[in-house]
Amino acid sequence: MADVIMIGSGPAGISAALYAARAGLETIVIGRDNGALDKADKIENYYGFAEPVNGKQLVAQGIEQAKRLGVQMITREVTGMSYDGEYLVKTKAGEFRAKAVIMATGSPRKKPAINGLDDYEGKGVSYCATCDAFFYRGKDVAVLGCCDYALSEALELAPIANSVTIVTNGEHPISSIPSHIKVVQTKIVELSGAGSLDGVVFEDGTRLDVSGLFVAVGVAGSSDLARKLGAQTEGSKIVVDENMSTNIPGLYAAGDCTGGLLQIAKAVYEGAKAGIEAVKYVRSVTSSQK
Fold this sequence. Notes:
6 helices, alpha/beta, 5-stranded parallel β-sheet, 290 residues
């Protein structure tokens, strides 16, 4: 078991990892890709570079710095989390335990442009199977997405709902879908329902009758994972205090997922603060267990 896991290998996650590793904690960073910095060709407003730096280059240098300090880097997509006094971080390739977790996967940059999606939020549209599956016991539901995260949500719903259909909105599913979960790849035109959701309408004129639609587009972001643990969120933002701590013991958040200024300088600061506070938390937990 690790002392602390950072979910996200961008500036916030790596900054937190540097402080945790230098404090002697067993530190793991789980990250799938470079996030928003992957598309940043030239960065000119970050301290310490006389010439513009490429986003990929900046991330790569941070990761090499963390490795030099003994941080274990795992390139995986996180599909779920649970908390029972310790944290269990789930990936398709395996599970990892830790005493503390720092959420640092950034903030989603776009939402599916589907007519009615916003209108039915809380009225049939959900973003967390763990949180809301109970309300759809014995009902027909759909999961919007095409990747491992969507499959993870579908598998969470399958034992509870009457039926689960993955709707990919025109995308090809990248995961192997079990036979008991249906898949519809047709592009979605709109959601329908009088007051609450009762169906998904496709561009070929067909319709899927469902009581719930769980949005799991792309990979699970920090706020998606935080909600599964019962952490307080506001939209796509994780609510933290001045110490980057959430309302769940040992769970911290840093970077774009906390809202505000979406800049590298902020992410690095918040990662450093979260890393320092996680060190204090892990030491206090370890001391109380002796």
